[in-house]
Design goal:
The protein is an alpha/beta fold. It has nine helices and eleven strands. A six-stranded mixed β-sheet has the order 3-8-7-4-5-6. It has a five-stranded parallel β-sheet with strand order 2-1-9-10-11, sandwiched between helices. Helix 7 packs parallel to helix 8. The radius of gyration is 21 Å and the shape is elongated.
Length: about 250
């Protein structure tokens, strides 16, 4: 088996230090990047149809930088002046610091966890009297509302941005030896763009069990999986596959 080309269904890394570039150099591969999905913000008109009044919430839970961007975007578009005493609960320190793009950080009540809603929950529970808003996408992870409900938190989800399939029509006649996916949405985009797609000899690499399941549910064959025992990254899994199938 001779692997010569790989398409990664994500945006190209901005840094020159990429494990994919190292992989390409070592095995003389052509590695291209193309995002199969992209995010679109919910328009203010659609937001208003949800009949959510931002003034009713005294705290906001941010699970990503994207959520931060779209919360303040909607606030601006609907002319809602975010009060100075608003409390912000961020899933990680990185997300908390990102708030500096919108507020004077040292003058705001900002709390953050280590990396997950579970880490943040003890802090949220200490402020149980607050009315929480959770800006999210249309594919929010279930653990977030489930954890909040389990702990008796008064909250409201609001979809402010959506993950949609990108137009890949220019790739219709382009063939790759390996297609790499990191999310179920990427798999869905492949099928939506190419409903007549036949896998044949094309190898599909899937990161994470939900991505693999999405592909298998659509009748696709998974040739490369990550993470696996001793193989934590996708590039390591691809390297192992190439070496094993020489």
């Amino acid at each position: 088996m001779n692997i010569k080309s790989i398409l990664v269904s994500q945006p190209e890394p901005k840094t020159q230090k990429s494990p994919y570039r190292d992989l390409a150099e070592r095995f003389k591969l052509k590695v291209d990047f193309r995002s199969f999905i992209h995010v679109e913000g919910v328009e203010s008109q659609e937001f208003r149809q949800n009949r959510i009044n931002l003034e009713e919430f005294s705290a906001v839970i941010f699970t990503s930088r994207m959520a931060v961007d779209h919360y303040f975007r909607i606030a601006s578009e609907t002319r809602f002046a975010v009060p100075d005493d608003m409390k912000y609960f961020c899933i990680s320190e990185a997300v908390a610091y990102y708030l500096q793009n919108y507020v004077v950080y040292r003058k705001r009540k900002i709390f953050f966890g280590k990396q997950s809603i579970v880490d943040l929950m003890d802090t949220i529970v200490k402020h149980k009297a607050e009315n929480f808003l959770v800006p999210c996408s249309d594919i929010q992870r279930k653990i977030i509302p489930e954890s909040l409900t389990k702990n008796g938190i008064n909250f409201k989800n609001v979809v402010l941005y959506k993950t949609v399939c990108s137009d890949l029509s220019d790739l219709e006649d382009v063939k790759y030896d390996i297609l790499v996916f990191y999310s179920p949405s990427g798999i869905q985009s492949l099928v939506k763009n190419f409903p007549e797609f036949k896998q044949n000899g094309t190898k599909i690499a899937a990161f994470g069990p939900t991505t693999a399941k999405a592909a298998q549910d659509l009748g696709l064959r998974i040739d490369i999986k990550a993470p696996m025992p001793g193989i934590p990254s996708m590039t390591m899994a691809i390297e192992d596959f190439i070496k094993t199938n020489k």
